[in-house]
Amino acid sequence: MQNPWADGPEYVTRCPIMSGGSYTYKFFVQDQEGTLWWHARSRWLRATVYGALMIRPKLGSSYPFAKSKLELPIVLDRDIIRVQQQALFSGTAPNISNALTINGQPRDVYLCSQQVINAALNQQLLFSIANHRLTMVVTDAVYTKPFATNVIMVGPSQTTDVLLTTDQRPGSYYMAARAYASARNAPFDNTTTTAILVYKSTTSRPILPSLPTYNDTNTVTNQIKSPGKVDVPIILDENLFFVVGFGFFNCSPGPRCQGPNNTRFAASMNNVSFVLPSQASLLQAYTNKIPNIYTPDFPAAPPVKFNYTGNGRRGLWQPVKGTKLYKLKFGSSVQIVLQDTSIFSTEDHPVHLHGYHFYVVGQGFGNFNPSQDTPRFNLVDPPQRNTIDIPVGGWAAIRFIADNPGKISVSENNYKPIGL
């Protein structure tokens, strides 16, 4: 979608819509079919204002698979706003939410599903339907090579279109979702939310699906592929390496400084904890040459090299605050390797590239090794996404052409308000 003045967090592409205000959002849909979703993009309001955006083929065109008889979006979510408000006030990591939900209800909604959206603000979710296979055909509104599975993992902001064939004995079957929680020693919502798929004229008790364990990383890193050969950038103009991690800021003891040893929880990329401007958006500042809003010195690689997924180093706990940007030339071919770190704890990071789809050419565990990992990249039929989950204690490599002028926001949905 070519919408550089609209897609992105507040104060990146444009200022937020103030109370009582309005904004007309016009955009073009290009090379996208399937399910996306719209949502508020100011702090954590995304968890309260959202909906499905279902893009169908043009008139005279058809899906590359048999058209389903019923289409219905499934939105996975969690009770999060008060949890996140408390975390912002106290400076600690977010507490456990009260419940996970399917289409707004924590238990036993009666539905039939094809499109699955994860609107849960900071939780990857495993989803399955008892005794039924799901065939993935679209992710983030881009077709994939059909992939049959018993369970899918949907990260925050991701969408997945699946085909479900009701070919089982007439009865009632639970669809269920639970957390995939990868951070070491971190509490999480271990509840399971359910809805019920009911065949007509049946009254049997529903059957529960068998979901993987909450830390089954092998299940959630199954690599999907594009339907055929795609045009992946081969010759790179930009080769960026971003390390993602958690840390702490020192602060004075008190109710807003309840992290370990009187600190506040922080997040960063390449040791920069991003600070949103408040007087003008970044795109406005660049276009109108407004000074003192940002600096163009975001590092292309971490300033300090270390064992990214080894034992955490306390000397790296405190990042640098800043509103720093990295400038890309229009039309340049870009690779970004996103590396998880164990500065405080390893974690599965969902990272979104605003205004773009990108090719996921590689993923792995441990520290990214250019000489060993690059030759293994899939440069033939990698999947396209707009949101990628960096594996816990691992890395992900993406490639794209910078052809949507404006401010590209590489952000993690979970922790933007604390610097990521």
UniProtKB/TrEMBL annotation:
It is found in: Secreted, Extracellular space, Apoplast. One of its GO terms (molecular function) is copper ion binding. One of its GO terms (cellular component) is apoplast. It catalyses: 4 hydroquinone + O2 = 4 benzosemiquinone + 2 H2O. Its EC number is 1.10.3.2. It is an enzyme of class 1 (oxidoreductase). Residues 2-58, 83-201, 297-407 form the Plastocyanin-like domain. Keywords: Apoplast, Copper, Glycoprotein, Lignin degradation, Metal-binding, Oxidoreductase, Repeat, Secreted. The keyword Cell membrane does not apply. It comes from the Eukaryota. InterPro entries: Cu-oxidase-like_N (IPR011707), Cu-oxidase_2nd (IPR001117), Cu-oxidase_C (IPR011706), Cu-oxidase_fam (IPR045087), Cupredoxin (IPR008972), CuRO_2_LCC (IPR034285). Its main location: secreted. The keyword Secreted applies. GO terms for biological process: lignin catabolic process. Its cofactor is Cu cation. Belongs to the multicopper oxidase family. This is laccase. It comes from Cynara cardunculus var. scolymus (Globe artichoke).
